[in-house]
Amino acid sequence: MTDPLFWHRLQFGFTVAYHYLFPQLTMGLALLIVYWKGMGLKTGRAVYDDTARFWIKIFGLNFALGVVTGVPMEFQFGTNWAAFSHYSGGVIGQTLAMEGIFAFFLESSFLALLVFGERRLGRVLHFAAAVALFVGSWLSGYFIIATNAFMQNPVGHRLAADGTLEIASLVAFVLNPWAIAQYLHNQIAAVVTGSFVVAAVGAYWRLRGEHVEVARVSLATGVVAGLVASLLVAFPTGHNQGRMVAAHQPVTLAAMEGHFHGGARAPLAMIGQPNVAERKLDNPVQLPALLSWIAYGDFSADVRGLTDFDESLWPTNIELLYYAFHIMVGLGTIFIAVMGVAALQLARRKLETSRWLLWILLLAFPFPYIANTAGWLTAELGRQPWLIHGLFRTAQGASPTVHGGTTLFTTLGFAGIYLVLGLVFVWLVLREVAHGPQPLPAGRPDAPDARALSGNPS
């Protein structure tokens, strides 16, 4: 394939998908670390501090890889997407700059205090540093989401005299309704990832009979947070995001559902294969009228199909969009079931002795990563053929002087570098898991009392 646009899209899609493997865990862990530090402060039990201390190390490794893999994306705005950057930089540059100046430095500064300053800071200030880390991490996520939301639902802008975009209302741009809905859905999905990873490590330690107290805390936290987050990611946050798509991108909704022909009481496709050539969904298993309710809150509402729109407005890869959306939804449903069963066993005090369920929790941790990637594929494929929906097409945004061969060459280079980085990262994480949680070295005034309260000499 010689089209440079294809290679530009492939490279950015690859780099951003790889990059997001790391922030989704850090954002999820940030909330759980606040919980553990808060419980340690409230109860005085050192097991919570030990749990937080271990996961802060994992957070730090993820944060480092997230930074390294995020830098190339910033450069691609200038190298691969110069026309897009020229056209929209006056708008999206605002949130990208705020993410770097405010959120990133807040996050990185307090991460250093969390990793190296526990003994000097003491419980209260160390808890405050955890809160600041959480704020920085989630604020960083909001600025990135607000940038993407502008591309999905452009608001708060105007056309400048030179034909480029500029800010008309910073408040409208930053508080884009699409951004708020997308942010809540994305952040709760990150908590799902964090919860599954925490539960998996707790299950691993429990299966091996190691680090019993920290394993118990990790299991309980991961299961409860995972169940709550899995429910919230489906409703209301996922539901609200679906309503947003129906209101602003109805052709995307039709493609996501393989809904070719519009009408009232539109069914929701559970299973089926989109047949674009014949304008139908093959072998469908559908729930009557449910798509009408999901989209518009009315079982009898009319939902437009793909054939109601000009083909030039159709997403450019309907099949991949359809399957990405259904993988996300299908895995989300499985997450609720798995964590529901685990929470029931936890309440019955049988989780730690249910080895079959511990194995399921251990092996389940990759699937939230797949679901999050499928969710972002849904968002980005659904916006096509637009870079900025309704304003600027993807075909207009690529750099005209960068040819496909150069982009393919650099993509292969990224793939090689990321493979090495990924292997090093996995080795470092596995080493930390093997070492397990470590007690705080002697020297902090309140450490001895906390250990006595915990009843755990390890």
If you had to describe this structure to a student in words, what would you say it looks like?
The model is unreliable at 444-458 (pLDDT under 50). This protein has a two-stranded antiparallel sheet. A two-stranded antiparallel ribbon has the order 3-6. Strands 4-5 form a two-stranded antiparallel sheet. The protein has helices spanning 4-19, 23-43, 46-79, 82-116, 118-152, 170-174, 177-208, 212-234, 237-248, 250-256, 290-296, 318-347, 355-364, 366-383, 394-397, 404-435, 447-454, and strands at residues 157-159, 165-167, 263-264, 268-275, 280-287, 302-303, 386-388, 392-393. The protein has 458 residues and is mainly alpha-helical. A hairpin with a 4-residue loop joins strand 4 and strand 5 (280-287). The chain has one domain. The longest helix is centred in the first third of the chain and has 35 residues, at 82-116. The protein is built from 17 helices and 8 strands. Helix 1 (4-19) runs antiparallel to helix 3 (46-79).
